Amino acid sequence: MTELYIEGDPIRDEKAPEGPIEQRWDKRRFSAKLVNPANRRKLSVIIVGTGLAGASAAATLGEAGYQVSSFCYQDSPRRAHSIAAQGGINAAKNYRNDGDSIYRLFYDTVKGGDFRSRESNVYRLAQVSVEIIDQCVAQGVPFAREYGGLLDNRSFGGVQVSRTFYARGQTGQQLLIGAYQALERQVAAGTVKMHTRHEMLELIVVDGRARGIIARDMVTGEIETHFADAVVLASGGYGNVFFLSTNAMGCNVTATWRAHRKGALFANPCFTQIHPTCIPVSGDYQSKLTLMSESLRNDGRIWVPKKAGDQRDPRQIPEDERDYYLERIYPSFGNLVPRDIASRAAKNVCDEGRGVGPGGLGVYLDFADAIKRMGRPAVEAKYGNLFDMYQRITGENPYEVPMRIYPAVHYTMGGLWVDYDLQSTIPGLFVTGEANFSDHGANRLGASALMQGLADGYFVLPNTINDYLASGPFEKLDENTPEAKEAAESVRARINKLLSIDGNRTVDSFHRELGHIMWEYCGMERTEEGLRKAIERIRELRDEFWQNVKVVGTNDELNQSLEKAGRVADFFELAELMCIDALHRRESCGGHFRAESQTEDGEALRHDDEFAYVAAWEFTGTGEQPVLHKENLEYEYVEMKQRSYK
Amino acid sequence: MNITLRVWRQKGRGDEGRMVTYKVEDVSQDMSFLEMLDVLNEKLTLAGEDPVAFDHDCREGICGACGVVINGVAHGPETTTTCQLHMRSFKDGDVIDVEPWRAKAFPVIKDLVVDRGAFDRIIQAGGYISAPTGTAPDAHANPIPKADADRAFDAATCIGCGACVAACPNASGMLFTAAKVTHLGMLPQGQPERAARVVKMVNQHDEEDFGGCTNIGECAAVCPKGIPLDTISQLNKDLLGALASGKL
Amino acid sequence: MANSTLTKQRSTAFKSTVALKSAMAVTGGILVLFLIVHMYGNLMIFGGQEVFDEYSHHIRVIGEPMLPPEGALWIIRIVLLASVLIHAYAAFTLWARARRARPAGQRYQTRRKPVQQTYASRTMRWGGVILALFVIYHILHLTTNNIAPGGASDSPYERVVNGFQIWWVLLTYLIAMIAVGFHLRHGIWSATQTLGANKASRQRVLNITATAIALVITVGFLIPPFSVFFGLVS
Ligand SMILES: Cc1cc2nc3c(=O)[nH]c(=O)nc-3n(C[C@H](O)[C@H](O)[C@H](O)COP(=O)(O)OP(=O)(O)OC[C@H]3O[C@@H](n4cnc5c(N)ncnc54)[C@H](O)[C@@H]3O)c2cc1C
Ligand code: HEM
Ligand code: SF4
Ligand code: FES
Fold first, then answer.
1. ipTM confidence
2. CA–CA separation, A640 and A631 (whole Å)
3. Which of C7, C101, C203 has its CB closest to that of B171?
4. Which residues does residue A589 pair with via DSSP β-bridges, in sequence order?
5. A44-103: per-residue pLDDT in tens?
6. Which residues catalyse the reaction (chain A) (predicted)?
7. B56 lines ligand 4 (CB under 6 A)
8. Which domains does chain C have, with CATH numbers?
9. How far is the CA of B157 from the centre of ligand 4 (A)?
10. What global pTM score does this model have?
11. Which of A98, A236, A563, C194 is the most exposed place for a label (fewest CB within 10 A)?
């Protein structure tokens, strides 16, 4: 296997202080250098992304007095993909007095991440979670409340305490609107300059420091050079490498991938989360998948016919010919097993030919019993909006016919490697939110991504970036700086190349095929053989892409095919690295099942002796062997255990 | 099924545009409206023609990026976003007119894509609660009666799509503005800036060249999030109150 | 925000679209009150010529001797005139604004399909123009008697009776009153919305009230002329 990559020196996080875990964040905040308010005006920061992670950071740094430039590819910062999160946000408030605590949230997150995240980071996340809720409420985020006027909580994703705050099924929207408003307030105050419909296409590194970006104005096509004393990437996840995912259509890896090519290490790229309750694919034209809240599994029962190829109307299939497979295999957790287990079990029954709906890619989520037990009005009150959404998309009435669900790619735990300060391996390049690899290990707990994005943006980054900026302002640069010129030139060259190929296949057709390969071989279940095949096919497809893609139009206009082409080109390179990463990790862990590493009864088997590390990859050239740097993970507080849900 | 589309094509800002007819064949009932446009665009691309530009992102009805006028109705025949409209709402042989939002405040950038920056500027003018990071009291310090919290929430669900402007005979942006004024005005945290907020937001709304509201109600009828018309009444009340009280 | 900018914002807001609308609502409200009183006065025609002419005379002497002859009437006239002018000014300003907000070249190619708007709401502007024209005609007819279909007279009662025996006078009046009905059906509801009194929970009551008042005024105004036409009053 070593022919695919080279092993380099190990790396480690130098920033997290030693000592009791509860004190580390305070210690770091104290030791980090401060910047005098008068000097902040002279320091500039570029923030790419206006999701929870980016908008919160831009607002906070703007308030602090730095000159912030914020970028997003949408027409308004309010549309960042964070808007789509439904379920909720965790915080260790212990408002329920049900035994929750910072320590328990920390413990659950480390364990949920299957021991592939850094203890110090996760502890800090749990610590600041408390402040996030306060901050959001102060901004006017309308969280759900009880009749007494206090905030409501629910338990989410199989956790035993109720620590999830929510705003109906639109938590992400409400949190993002809060952050967006704070951001716009700073735009009005003149501390943040907003660049909408701008896509970052390259990072500028001068003297080893991140000093700016090249961005394309998506309306005029102008290639712009922007400089700053530090660059923050908050550009979200890369689930769209699978083509079909629950991510927004524009989600991409370009910002982080370009930084990776310039020297930032990419950590655990193969760690992706697959969500079990999505609406299945209905045809080839399908452009994205829609998530339905996991809460449906609280009352719905999941089943498939016992007989393969059973085409009967589900209502005609008698009880004893149904296989409630989760209840059968995992009697103690039943339909509430964690996301990865539910997802893989669904894939397994479909692979056996027992899947339902178009292409046999679906399982039933049946509310007939719940309706009988609770009555239709109660079901309607609890799940009405989800049922409506299902009906709008599928045209079927879930009160009468069981819903069909299937797993879909939902979140990427991998991302650019960062230290405790959220700084990447390029000095001056910080990475926050889903774009970094940090807090979720090999599997993310429900309602933790929103927490992390806001923790990073409101509380962590603003306290750590000073330490770096204190040594600024750095040398003034202009467009003639060779590194900037070179970066802009390379962007132009790439765009010209994409426009000049004039082949016979559309960008989407390549993307779709790439997605198929990734889903098949680097999805829920991976094998050595499959991954090798995938790498080969990705390389072939990438070559074909660069010879046969067709992008109509010019650079000097709004050109959505060109935008997509650039993103897909980067997905090709990422896809290969994901497969190499998956191949090298010969263990099953978290949301990722490696067929060669299972227990006798087919459950995931982790190998802590060999793989308790973060795999951080260094770029050496397209199609060249990447270099693997391992960050060893040590667990002082949480004892490493195998998960069991039987 | 087979569909005939008549789509507004416009090369760029300020260019002349026109309606162009396209045929789309083999459209499935289960396709979303945007997926149908994807199919058209694949075909156009392979023929070397410029695909139709339209804004979209989440395709889940929450980001507010999408939105076109379909047969004269903003977001089309169902009360939802364009991305959540499915082809089963049409029938074989239908001729469907597709146009961008039209308002001076929303200039067309290309084809069906418009510039809605005016909405961001209305928010900049005062659509926020000033709560600098780190200054917040405990979240339970201020209990909020559920009825107020719910009303605030209903208004807060606005996705900023702009359908209200597109549908309004006056091209007014008042429903959008009122949704924010109501959301923040219902909450105790929003009180200190309440009077100034509504004044500044209404002024900005007017400055952006939106029309004035004359209570026709088309906005609320097409709003995919069901923002109620009475939010505009709330805005009026807040504005008149602010002007009368001299509390600025 | 510095206070001077807030002061400026405040004075700008006095000229905002919302302020214009409020001026319309208030002036519209004054006009509605007037119409109710006016309608009540008209119904006196059933008391016969003496009663009606006495009523007409009475309006002219209200407040005497504190006020000069016709003093109160002039105050009312000025208030009404100012109301109509402010009302129309605001209406035309908003109308022009709406046209600018979707200027020629940026209009829809397809007819925008109304989703819920009512006929009444859609016809406010042209309906208002019809009303304005009618008001002028109406004053020339019954107040100054410059136009005197059926013959001039010093008795208001006779002017009414002479006029409304002619079919086209009745017809103009009928059309105008229906226009008033529609204008008020939307206008009264709209005024409550504009002045901040509308709430989802009150919507039904407000709608019913608006319809009721509009109906009463329209019918109330139409009874006398029809009675004249059909010879119930002569
Ligand atoms: C359907 C769905 C439901 C979810 N539900 C939950 C939930 O209930 N609870 C939970 O905790 N998490 C949930 N998640 C996960 C969570 O929403 C995301 O992980 C999180 O919001 C990511 O935030 P972010 O700020 O890192 O990035 P994003 O919100 O994705 O923002 C990315 C930003 O970067 C910009 N950008 C990207 N690339 C470029 C570029 N090249 N140039 C310029 N700008 C760029 C974009 O414009 C955007 O502004 C859900 C996710 C999905 C898909
Ligand atoms: C000079 C002639 C008139 C014109 C041009 C006119 C025009 C208008 C217009 C355009 C509106 C706003 C429509 C809307 O809200 O959608 C309006 C509202 C209204 N009009 Fe008139 N009108 C006139 C006369 C009258 C008269 C004589 C009355 C009284 C009987 C009246 C009562 C009202 C009321 C109550 C409203 C509602 C105000 C509001 O929207 O808040 N109008 N008018
Ligand atoms: S009020 Fe409704 S129609 Fe208007 S922008 Fe908000 S969601 Fe869209
Ligand atoms: S694409 Fe997001 S609302 Fe339609």
1. 0.97
2. 17
3. C101
4. A592
5. 999 999 999 999 999 999 999 999 999 999 999 999 999 999 889 999 999 999 999 999
6. 339
7. yes
8. 19-99+121-229 (1.20.1300.10)
9. 14
10. 0.96
11. A98
